[in-house]
Structure of Homoserine kinase:
Amino acid sequence: MRETASPTVRVIVPATTANLGPGFDTLGMALDLYNHVELTETGEGFVVDVEGEGAASIPRNESNIVLRVVRQVYELAGRKPAGLRLRLRNEIPVARGLGSSAAALVGGAVAANELCGNCLSDQEILEIVTSFEGHPDNVAPALFGGVVVSAMIAEGDRTEVVSRKIPPPYGMRAIVAIPDFPLATKRARNALPAVVPFKDAVFNVSRTSMVILAFIHNDWDLLAKVMEDRLHQPYREPLIPGMGDVFSAAREAGALAAVLSGAGPTLIAFARENTAEVAQAMEETFARHGVSCVTKELKPCAVGAKVI
Ligand SMILES: Nc1ncnc2c1ncn2[C@@H]1O[C@H](COP(=O)(O)OP(=O)(O)OP(=O)(O)O)[C@@H](O)[C@H]1O
Ligand SMILES: N[C@@H](CCO)C(=O)O
């Protein structure tokens, strides 16, 4: 008798760069570097395979965050799988500020939802994965693509995640300089103060608003002027040797702006030309500070998580 194939779903999810300078925990952009998640319902057991980035460090047991989000989706769908096989193939470096965990979580949630008959909406998936991450600015662009503005709005005992997508900037390139050392998001968030000067808060409110307008109107002169931060980058700079000099070198080489990618340590520069010169300037400047890095030229990605 012909064996029926085990139901399998494959999902591809983009990397993301969060904050985009002043938009701490609010702005994020999807980039064309991907994690691949494959989920199969099996007769028994829960198996996790990992290849690519993080293969040596990502757990294969119940602590694996992707397995945890898959289980939560099945539970919400009222389904109890006899067994699951999870295959993770990662191109996004782990703990480097490019949204590796967000991409993996979104991939797992979308794959599980597909196998459960798509009973959860995108909004429900967004809020489930945000609850794992604690902030929406990687998750939302990983799910929806493009540039996404997000806010967490408390409503009684529930927190609604409100997200709105802007088309990615046309003709813009993102040069990322990825140091060879990891920086856990948790550690980078612990470096932040509980209170900031009122003038710094106002600085970021104005710059975040203007960054959004610059993207909406493709106003690159404006973007170059306003993509600055006072809420998180100054407090994280001691964790990334040479960060300020790398920003200056990127701009001198032709970048419109250069900021910390998410919680770092990756630094990201936005440019429309001279991308090779920008990448070289970032790499050489990091090297002068004793930091070895890999540079990649990436493009903003209009599409988020996709079942393939
Ligand atoms: N692709 C992945 N698959 C499974 N677990 C992952 C993956 N990427 C990261 N993790 C796990 O997510 C947890 C949080 O990682 P952390 O947020 O510090 O790094 P990250 O999400 O990879 O980095 P970043 O958000 O800066 O890109 C870590 O325990 C890590 O093992
Ligand atoms: N907004 C988050 C992004 C983490 O990728 C932070 O900066 O901690």
Notes: The pocket of adenosine-5'-triphosphate (ligand 1) is lined by residues 35, 54, 58, 64-66, 88, 90, 94-101, 104, 138, 184-185, 262-263 (CB under 6 Å). The mean pLDDT is 96. The CA atoms of residues 103 and 286 lie 27 Å apart.
